[in-house]
Batch of 3 targets.
Target 1
Amino acid sequence: MFHPIHFSIPNAPKIPSFLFKIYLTNGISVMYEGADFLAHVVNTLTEERKTMALFRKGITLKTKTMAFTGDPIVPPLPSRVMLPLKHAIGEPAHPVVKKGDTVTVGQVIATAPSRTSLPLHATIAGTIGEDSEYLDCTGTPIPSLTIDSDGGDTWDTPDNEEKALSSHTPAEIIERIHAAGLITTHLASVPLAGDLMPMDQPKTHLIDGHQITQKIDTLLITAFDKEPSLGVNRYYAGNTTEDLADGITALKMITGAPAVRFVVDTHYGPYPQLKELVAADEEETTTITSVNGRRFPIGMAIPVIKAALGREVPLPFGHPRDVGVALYDISTVIAVGTALRTHLPQVESLITVGGGALSQTGIVKVRIGTPIREVFEALGGFHTDPAKIILGGPMTGMAHYDLDVPVTKDTEGLFALTHDEIQLAGDYRQCINCGLCVKVCPVNLLPGVLSLYCVNDKFDMAEAEGLFNCIECGCCDYVCPSRRPLVHLFRHAKRQVMEA
Amino acid sequence: MHNTNNLIVSMSPHLRGTLSIEGMMRTFLIGLIPPAVMAIYLFGLKSLLIMVLSMATAVIVETVIERLTKRTPTYTDGHALLIGLILALILPPSVAWWMPVVGAGIAIILGKLMFGGLGTYPFNPPLVAWVVLKLSWPERMSVFIAPHTTDQVLTPLMALKEDPSLFYSYEIGDLFLGNTAGPLGAVCAVAVLIGAAFLLYRGVIRWHIPIAFCAGVALFAAILHSINPDIYPPVVFHLLSGGVLLGAFFIAPEPVTSPVTVKGMLLFGFLAGILTMIIRMWGAYPDGTFYAILIMNAATPLFNYLKPKEYGSVKRA
């Protein structure tokens, strides 16, 4: 079966002579001191019960764990990178360089017309090559710039005027975040600056004729990933830097959130660095909630808010800020802190690389724009023919046929799955009304019924049944005994409704 | 470098669970092994003949009809076998050899394929066949024999119809172990419960319908029993006699004809239990379980209106 990654936390307490080895359900072992043993068991039980009370839906993926320790793997610098001018739904950036120009790492090569698009920075040093285009996972051609490496790694010098964080205004911080080209991927992949901008304005709802003003009251930081198979945020949670505290301060300033809450996975930990942050907070506004991160899709935006705070983001098209939450990954928060400290743009990111077709899996620190082929090669290549290459996690990511597409800022994982790991929908059967999809749906839909509307082109009825509430987590698809391609049908129906 | 020219592109999710229709049917069939074995033990090899004839007919009829109508053959998924086996287990042990054959044919044609096959039929196919047999040959369907003999006896529920106070002559232990007259698979409560535990463990049925069903029966029986313990039997008698357990754990939760929402399942089971008791107490038939389930099957689309709460309703601050 499929292998997710298990990290050992480098800063875990030293193992004493007498120890208990607790085997958790999935074969992960955590070592604890004698006295901690009981406390841990009790904590785990009560925490899980609390989480389960708020979030009962979803599935537990059948996964086998694999140990991964140490630092991220750093592949050699790519000889050529391809940098997309367009990010997600934002407008394309305007190139400010032309073919043959020499660029250094971090130099701006395209400027963003607005806060909803991203400026583009060179991620390797070299010369600008031909304008290029590649097809992304949806088949959309993405115009992009290419840089041919000169073999060196010269960095652009940032305008590093030292200024204490507290003297920044929120607008300045947003400007800095925008200039660094940071993104957030929680609900959709959007520029972080654009996501943060409306936060200083309280959101107004009209409920039963009453105007309700919703201010951001919690900065929710997830220390685990959207899918159990991904591991970057878990890695960051165990290896935080001082930038985390800076990032939190900055985001608190922008959003006005008085409280910070970390959401961690019960199965990993104990995250001493996060606990130190909590202990250091004298006003006791920083807290840690642990949830069962093996329960998919608890890491996705809508369910994690439900599991950690018991709040339901209004669907469809709701945003965490509608319920007073600013939701960011721990990696995003650290990136904010780093950008404020160094004034350097984001040129590399950590991605999880896994899948049965690879001889080695792990966390890879990769320059943005590197062709995914080179990432796989850096890990020793395939030991068997891959059946599917997936950009993102295996439950929500997109498959691609081309190994020459680049790693982009929103690539969280790269998976090379074998024929044994995937199961093609093939000839699906009639819905047998078993209700398993209803049992697992995290947003309380009736996916089976919806799918019947979708296959019969009754898109308006599907919409009335809550088609757009679907967060496309894929749980219904995973459990369906009739092997119906439910997510595929819903995406198709959404597109039909949007284009109508 | 390995071959990367034949990469598959498809929509997420790229992983899939292991549950399939075939697996579900296999689990149901395995769960029915304890009642089937007990039926053979209690009523002799003739019950094996009934089961084999019923299952074989179901598969053959399905294959033939699907060939004739040029549909995709589905006999390999085990559903026809399951229909045949359930039908055999709800027949009396003394039926003529041709009755399971006729019944299985009716179940497949009238119950299943007429409506479009697995997933679309509104009524539980074995129950449809059971009703047709019951209405067509009422005498043959009402003859029950005592275990290990060929003596004609009344089932506990039939005796109850004759004289309400007769229930005192039945030991709860006999009902539990199947030492009474009744349908082939339903007489031995303990075998049914073992099979049901397997189904629940494997997750092919969920607890809502069976428990709600038993709760409906138990509540109704408890009220009656507390009114007059002389003529109304205790709760345990009602739960263990007739087809209640087999119906609650194997027939009512059958996926196609039962609701999909939690609220719907609970109400479906509970009302079916109440209806069973109403038919038992005041109806013309001694055991109302199968009729009750059929009637509730007709109402299944209505129960599906009991949807889970819509996600994301903004709470008043």
Target 2
Amino acid sequence: MKTLLLYFQLLWLPLFLTNTDSNEYISIQVDKIPFSDFVKIVENKTNLKIYYQETWIKGLEVTIHDDHILPIAALKKALKQTKITVSEWNGNFVLLPSAKLISSLPPYKIKNTEPIPKISDIKNNKKESRVYLKGRKADLQVITLGKREQASNTRFVTLSGTVNDAISGENIPGATIYIEETKKGAAADSEGRFSLQIKPGKYTARFNFLGMEEKKFHLNIYSSGSFNVEMDQANFEMDEVIVYGDKQMSIRAKDPGLEKIAVKSIREIPMMMGEPDILKVSEMLPGIVSVGEGSTGLNVRGGNADQNAFYINNIPIYNTSHLFGFFPAFNSEIIKDFSIYKGYIPASYGGRLSSVFDITTKTGNKEHFTARGGISPVSANLVFEGPIKKDKASFLISGRKSYSDWLLAKINDPTISASSAKFSDFSASLNYDTKSSQLNLFTYYSSDYFRLADLNTYSYFNIGGALNYGHNFSEKKRLNISAVGSIYGFNTIDTQFESTAYEHNYQISDYEVRAEMEQDLTDKHNIVYGATLIYYNLDRGSVNPYGSYSLKIQTDLGKEQAVEGALYFTDNYKINQRLSTNIGLRFGAFAPMGEKTIYTYFDNLPKEDKYINDSIQYAAGEIIKWYFAPDIRAAINYETDLNGSLKISYNRTHQNIFMLNNTIAIAPNTQWKLADYYLKPAQSQQISAGIFRTIPKGDWETSLEIFLKTTKYTTEFRDGADFIDNPNVEQSVLQGDQDAYGFEFLIKRSGHRLNGWLAYTFSRAMVRVASENSWEQINQGELFPANFDIPHVVNAMINYKIRKRISISSTLTYQSGKPVTYPIATYTLEELNYIDYSSRNEYRIPHYFRTDISLKIEGNLRKDKLIHSSLLLSIYNLTGRDNPYSVYFDQVNGKLWSYQYSIIGVPLFTATWLFKLGNYAAE
Amino acid sequence: MLQNKIILYLIPLVFLSACIKPFTPDIDGNAATKIVVSGKLTDKEGYQYVTLSKSMLLNETEYESLRNCSVYIWDEDGNRFSMTEYSSGSYRVWMDKADLKVGTAYHIQIFTPEGDELISEPDIMPQVAKANYPSFQLDSIYGVYDKYTKGLQFSIDIEGNELDSKYYLFELEATYEHHALYDREWYYDYGVHHIFPPDSSLFFCWTTEKVPEIFTLSTENLAENKFKHFNLHFVTYHQEHLKFGYSLLFRQLGLSREAYLYWESVRLNNNQNASLYSKQPVDTQGNIKNITNPNKEVLGFFSASAISETRIFVEAQPTETYPLCIPIALDRIGFRNIGPSDYPAFLMNDPQGSYFMIWLPDPCVNCASTHGTTTKPNFWPY
């Protein structure tokens, strides 16, 4: 017990006793004095503290005569006849019987052909890892690559390797290596591999990644070589940052418009009903605006909600939400990396105009089996992972299921209590790594079901699979091949009226193969090139009568097929220490194919059934039309000084698929539609420029970006048009122009007990659908604000670590009111009063303000425990403000009444319990 | 609509926290007013009516009719029917059955005193299915009086054929019986008077009023030009309408597709709902243009419709109405409570052969005090 207390003291005392002097020589002249007296003499002469127990040195006498001796040498001399060891601890000395206090890892050399010893081996040493986890300081180790005789001062050698999580063994994409002497850096790729060209010499290398402790090494480099780095979790860094740079530690080096979200942080942010939602967190970032509470849509830099691509391990996801948008379709427990490209979009991505949300999932623990999960008021989730073959192959299985029906049963209304709402999702991942190749098989499935008594039933699903293979031909050349399939479908049954009851099934599937090569030409010059081919098969389904009394006509909405191919090339070149460029070219082609009947219409008349003058038949597989899309992607990054950079980017993008949606939010029966004979692919050009600065004092980072975006052939519904019964979409949809511009400001602080960020976005998005023909106009051809034109958005997030296990977070959101079309007059027809509306979106609903708060309490931090759990208490809409989602007007007896509709008008408290096998740091 | 209903339920059932509350928008009150043309041609012989007015800005309360216009109805054969202004802004012309032919296109031409010429697109009068099979059933709705309000849901079955229009507009006219609470027997006007036998002439009344809603239906996407139980008007048990008998006249109009799209859009604009998936109000462009000043928008749609009518009668229902009549007990100063303007002030009868000192205000003894007439409609069954 006393020993335990001694250890405990040792943990704390060094914090207060730091002014010691163990390196100065002292003079000791003692003759057969008790050891305790000897200690006092040493302490008096040096201001050092020496810790030991009296029982260990009982009866020991010391005789030393030396005028020039180090304190440690004197201690060792005094204890020479005993088994007591002397250890240095923060400049003081600790005496222990038969054991040496390990205060730092021993330095060791590594041959360039062998991996360095794993940190986990050392961690398993029970003597060292006693009692509590603690954040460990970076250990300065020496790594030697090559042999001295191989060294040449004139040629560059390649420094390469992989970065892994020390506990889970997973690689860490985005981890950075930074050479202090050369001020060069590199980022690990999606497989955790890094590569750097450097001249032989002695260097200091720093490895960093958010949520991980910095690792620092001395490098003795004689020739090319590789080594593995294992990083430890920053155990007490609960205040970690959410937004961070990708390429290097500094915000100044990341691509313009690139945002990343650390999944671990999401669990600390207050969320509706306690469900961590990575997409909702992304709305806190500048330039990304939610369509509204409980809606799946996001508007990025003034783009429509369908202009964003969502990928999970390369699988496109067409519906990213559960329960119509109230919950995310992605289980945050399995997400490893989340990148959002909203400025510079690399040429390897195509098919969407505004942004790419790229999610990479965890690949399973290669070291040991583990599980984790969470329970919230509406759902429970469980993740199970482990090795199939240690260090080589692993698996990860996750599942999530709702049990929200109990809420419905509580409601005293026969319609609601007879209703049902449920969702589930499932994923499985198999991962196999060899030294030069990686193979990953990932499958994903999500489903939703909603039944409103005997009135309506909705169900929808996403299903996808991806086989991703990577091979390193050399340290400088890597091949990635993917085969991906994705299917999204929904079913609607409407039984409100027996005469019009119907059932509708819809499905879109796409299959993609992609091959990509990455090549480092020099340490400054990297190229990526590849090709992709996608086959779309879209079945808009048929509207079928439902029930024996339905008179609904069976309407076949038609099938569509198309192929999309692209060749792309990206050149990443660091011109000098300050200037770097990314130039990308992408040449895409899109072709809708038969079998299809295309109706043609009389010229200068509306596209309506009655004006059809002919039809064109296309055979199966016959190309209906070719659309070619040459795209340019470019980014220039100029580092003005050590703390700042200036970035400019230009994007030209195309989009061949869009949503058929005539509501403000994205409705659950929204259909995806391919560009076709009439509807052209949309195209967009965006130019953005930004200033990025870090302020070392206080660890602040700031950025200011401006953007200007023009879009052609954006789709808008004709007034009053619907698509549920119409197979000829060209009759319902018009195409117009969309202009967006704005600026985004971000200031954030990280690495402190109090951290967070403040983001402000000013943006405008205007639409014009003009034509010489009045029937092809919207708003008489005049410019009008897009439904999501929200000029001012302020988002703030504050996280404060109260104690090591307790943190509190709060978010604040302000948005200008959304555009709305208001009534401006009334008029009388047939003795009834009607409303005359303003031009489209001429007014705005009241602004939106919400603040949320959450408290996260971690279980104890003991290392040896079976289960670690944490409790997240959160209040959504703390002030209970009735934020308007929409406004509407009703006319009763000639008087106009206006109403405001709020979705969450009260504070919403939830408690979520999260658990995992192992201790806090376990993954 | 489908989505609206779902979300209206989804929100409370999942979160129990959605809310709708009144709100005052900040609306510019200086928009220009527009000419409104209200009227339609039907195949029913008689006067055809058109009303011309100006739209009212939200801060205006005065209805502004458009007077002294020249209004003509034209058929496709070039026959012109000149309308006369029979009251302020209201114009009419008598047309014989022979002039109102199904399959004929009609349009309206208007000359305003300001010199503008308005003209409508021709609208072809379609054939309409015979209105038949009206029905009602006890139902409940999520209402304004209570969480769920009982009442009668009126509906109609459509039984059209291929030649009939597939686009319907329904206009409803309700007639209901209502009663005073007391006969007239005692009254005071400087002195108490007795009427015997008691006067029951103002005890029974009937009110006829247009149901202030429009209903539209299209069977375009149905296999047959039929529809079972198309829900129309809902009358709650909290209204006095059902207490002593209720009759509903269904006017079923067959429209052209263009007319249907117009009425459907104004109906949707007038019946917006709270919804997660609400739609934008739509641009309701009618078929009337100002050819003198094309930039001046004209509101309204001049349509030609065939019409068919049917009627349904509902006997007295167990309503839960609140009485319009509130007797007033006269306190110690007695008849001095009643001013001469309220004479004759009727008093509650005492079956003992006298009267109580209780004043019966007009609604208690006069069923027509606020609305209605004592003339029984000829279609009233009893």
Target 3
Amino acid sequence: MESSNSPRQEPVSWDAIDRYLAGRCTPQEAAIAKAYLARCGLSGSQVKRVVQRAEGAGEQAPSTQDAWQALIGRLEGLDQIEASPRGESTPSSQPWTSLKTGRGGAASRTPISSLGTRALPSASKIRRVGGHSLPQWMIVPAAAGVLGLVLLVVAQMGIFTRAQRGITPQIREYATSTGQQLQLTLSDGTRVTLAPQSTLRIATAPTTPSRTVAIVGEAYFDVRTVPGAPFIVRTGNVATRVLGTTFSVRRYPGDAHVQVAVTSGKVAVSGIAGPRSALTLAAGGVGFVTDSTAIQISADSARQYTAWTTGKLVFHEVPARDVLATLTHWYGYQFALTDSALASYRLTTILDAQSSANALGTIKLLLNVDLTFDGDVVTLHPRQARHAPSRDMHRLRHPLTTPNAEVGR
Amino acid sequence: MWSARLRAGDVDVFRTIFETYWTGLWHFARRSVPGDVAEDIAQDVMADLWRRRDAIDPNITFAQYLFKAVRNRVSNYWRHERTSLAVEEVSEPETPIGMGSAPMTPDHLAAANDVEMALAFAIRQLSEIQRAVLTLRWVHEMTYEQVAEVLSISPDAARQHGSRAQRTIRPLLAKFRIP
């Protein structure tokens, strides 16, 4: 590196500083460069910031948040595009994707944007959101229904109505927290029950009412038939298409698969692996879909997967770790196991979705453990380590469902 | 792994990419076009990334793809504006921008003992292409080969622009250096 312009001999190679700032140097070079810049009163990140700011003639770029909202506005149907498995045409999304609204997309934003990301609006606020003058595709929380009571409780606690990814009229988001349920009626008459710690996102289009929702967590749907307009539920990479039916969909963050349980009618489930990850489920059917495969378990078990909508958590030979994960969603406890072998014991039981005390009592009995509480963390200690269930005795049964089983022995 | 997830239609990944590059892309376009045009261009490029996510070469980095796309769109913009000027010529600032009408010299700034302002001043003295190289190299951490690809110049030229830019900055920093 030349130093002809330098007023005095540089004690450091600028190549090293260059490589350091480009994130492509050896640790020694980094140390040298850092030390040099520090003696000039600068840090690497300061230099980067100054260089970045010098671009654009010192002006500020439009805020990332606003820009994202504008982009969502013009990529109307982002959800629909995504909901369709690879290779399949998405006719309904074409008019929007080719629509260039530019910054006008942002201009059409409505007062809903003023809701803070973390706002906890009251039930009436949600209603106001639902009644707002934009398209037909609106959500109003149902005041009546099997969960009326739950909804009342929820209303007092405050439900998250947020658009985690930027609130726009095009994508709206409804979320529940621990133990909460939310019943929504969509503008087409479809009723949705949102399980705890779950999120429903809905893409709305000013002209074409969409029948697509995205779910993180778990939800139960009672879909109103609209001839020629399938209702689509997107969960991760999996799309579930229905005409008119009742079913539940579950995929919490971290779940390896999407679970679909159908209680009436028929649904088509498709993952991203083409026919290998596609399923058609009839009433009673339960399917599990991953990125590479889809399996259907024995028919007529759907009821147990949707029992939560009636206040019961039904488990049939479910590994304890999965039972505890579900209880975390419902009761908010985090569970710790002092003996990791407990995690794979399979449990069969029915727990009360409303009473954590009853449920924990049952768990204690089934797994033969003592519970210690530390804040929200519940630790399970095997009661008698020497008499822990042996490997071939790991199917523990609820004393009520299998009266003769010896629990935990 | 980002590109695989983007291909699979992962909106969260797309959002992350958007948030990572939005400001950089806007500034990069803003060097050569008015602010509202820069915004449109950056938006178009991001929208394209999403729509064409299946077709994007997984062997190039997102930064490379995005900045190159911005540059192409800037060129198209001027072509459509029917200007005969090359982009670099148009965008060359006549005076250092952003420092007010009475430019301070590096010596003034040295006296003010604000190394950051002085550095900003020095960077604004650079030619458009030198600044572009520094930005891609230092802010977006590209290799000179990648910088060259984005700017459609040879790697040697990219290196040369980089080292010339550094030669402008060097004496200035030296003024602030504690021996």
